[in-house]
Amino acid sequence: MLHAWAEDTFYYPVIRQNLSSAPSPLSVSYMDHLDHEHRTIDGYLDRLEGEVKTGPPIPTWLQTYALFAKGLLAHMKKEEEELFPLSEKLLGADRLEAISQELEKRRKEAPAVRRHTS
Fold it and tell me: What is the pTM of this model?
């Protein structure tokens, strides 16, 4: 939850503010897609919680977990291989460090529940 909150609150907005000078493929649609992935991953977590907390796990929890894991791994790969290197080119190491420091100051503000739950 902290990771997604930090990205949604500090990291993604700064990238969006600088898209006019961003290297390809960074664009509004690219960032919208990453936001959609956050919502999808949170949706799978909601489903998993519902499928497991109702008593004995229902048979579909394995499929839901597989979808969650596949979506999370694909999202992380996209961030690590594309977004992070491109954002370093766009913002520079000093700006990214400043974002990190601001996050650390405000981490107690992170919500106790997932932000994108339905």
Answer: 0.84
